[in-house]
Amino acid sequence: xxxxxxxxxxxxxxxxxxxxxxxxxxxxxxxxxxxxxxxxxxxxxxxxxxxxxxxxxxxxxxxxxxxxxxxxxxxxxxxxxxxxxxxxxxxxxxxxxxxxxxxxxxxxxxxxxxxxxxxxxxxxxxxxxxxxxxxxxxxxxxxxxxxxxxxxxxxxxxxxxxxxxxxxxxxxxxxxxxxxxxxxxxxxxxxxxxxxxxxxxxxxxxxxxxxxxxxxxxxxxxxxxxxxxxxxxxxxxxxxxxxxxxxxxxxxxxxxxxxxxxxxxxxxxxxxxxxxxxxxxxxxxxxxxxxxxxxxxxxxxxxxxxxxxxxxxxxxxxxxxxxxxxxxxxxxxxxxxxxxxxxxxxxxxxxxxxxxxxxxxxxxxxxxxxxxxxxxxxxxxxxxxxxxxxxxxxxxxxxxxxxxxxxxxxxxxxxxxxxxxxxxxxxxxxxxxxxxxxxxxxxxxxxxxxxxxxxxxxxxxxxxxxxxxxxxxxxxxxxxxxxxxxxxxxxxxxxxxxxxxxxxxxxxxxxxxxxxxxxxxxxxxxxxxxxxxxxxxxxxxxxxxxxxxxxxxxxxxxxxxxxxxxxxxxxxxxxxxxxxxxxxxxxxxxxxxxxxxxxxxxxxxxxxxxxxxxxxxxxxxxxxxxxxxxxxxxxxxxxxxxxxxxxxxxxxxxxxxxxxxxxxxxxxxxxxxxxxxxxxxxxxxxxxxxxxxxx
Length: 695
Hints:
The protein has 17 helices and 25 strands. The protein has three domains: 7-214, Vaccinia Virus protein VP39 (Rossmann fold), CATH 3.40.50; 257-324 and 474-684, Aminopeptidase, CATH 3.40.630.10; 325-471, 3-Layer(bba) Sandwich (Glucose Oxidase, domain 1). An eight-stranded mixed beta sheet has the order 4-3-1-2-5-6-8-7, sandwiched between helices. The protein is an alpha/beta fold. Residues 1-19 and 689-695 have low confidence and may be disordered. 27% of the residues lie in helices and 24% in strands.
């Protein structure tokens, strides 16, 4: 069958006319990238013979020529640019390649200069961050694209401290553009956002991302007037502005807590993230501050340095032997259907899983949420099953665990279990308890790709490769130091050191508040502290010992303990589901909470939380969780904690932790420590003081 004519329209509408002429090496690199990337864009944009495509901002014409060659001599290729040099380069390259289907035209800086509804698909590569009039330009993009057509924006994020391109809006935050701003601006022009791919191409290490849009099939002839107010509550990266969060005013009698400042606490949190990034830079795939790794050792050093700086006494490390720790050195998870391969950006192996030499190549079966009803009448023997997991609200409790879906899958003969995590976004998570058997995790957006291919009746396969081992003989440590008071009674403040990835919420937030409290109380003379404060930078419970040692030695360690405070997941932005996306608000999320002790202790805690705007669930948890869970009933104890969808994912970054949330919880705990000084040890004990069973 003769191929229909395909018109490829290449616009260079935003590239600067006076840009420095590229050298031979740059030209070769761009052409090599086009040879690799252009076929991938054909898939993303769903190009078919007969379609018209616009490559907006073609530079030297690399993508114009490669696509023109791929599509054949019967296609017609238009290329435009605002600079005469670029126009000459495109003409020369097309002529050299013998492409008679390329016509070069001049474009505009605020318009595509193309007829309305002429294109079936368009893309802009490394160009959108140069656009100086995005509202006008995006209206032109919308007009140029046919209803139902696709638009792909490929660009890079701004580096901290980089300078804005001249003339572009200031909200870019530097040279480049954050993906959320691309999403918002194109949606404001009328486009529907389909997907954001964090790294493009998926198999490359370059810093580009891809944002995919569609013009609605029933698009109105005239779009509403854009709102010139923009996004006043978002910063340049598309996240809520720190100063947009509500900050409770300090009462005059609480002025002594003013030194616990949001900016300082956020700075401490960023120090913990930097430790994780240092571990990532070593090439560790399962990076962060995990026990048994350099990242955790550096976190121990960091905590000890704080303790020494503020002259704590009896600073020491309590060392523990670790159970074998899972470590991955390489992995590959590749899906295939209809002759195409899919390297999904969120695909990760299940932590603790192992594969036989050579890996597995399996058919994929979709089994809903993995309930008994989903498996009824299904033959999944020897297949990889993909299960929809619903956070309730996060990885602490979620449907794949509550349903017993993993065990059910293996009991039904599945060779591997895959989890599609969440009902929004595209979080990258490694946590899936397969008991060492083959498993993988994909985010919601990526999981939909596989689910929909199966729904279309296509056979989907997955290639699983994993080189992982159990490392034995490792040790870890908890760092301890005491700020002395006037008596031998003490308050214990606990925050765990370990973290998956950046671990900003879990548990950079807790560590930031711990060090903030340390700085606050260290400023006071010892005579002003009724009780000593023992700070425990705990090794952690993600594969580590947690605080079981405190429980096991409770008769020695806790006989003079007035209160234990566990600082864990103490500040996170409140979110709202809006379709398949979590929208961040300008509020701190409510906390689950726990108090074990007397009625006076309860009153002190609740009054302080209310005073400093700590939002709580109405019902109290029936036990403490996380680091303090094992020891929470062994002495009076308090905890507030939140475990949202982002916990334990690679997206647990500092943007999710409001600085004002750190400030308000630090001030609340400082006041609690002061207020319980009015009560004796016995007055703080629960009515059933003899109950000490572990949780």
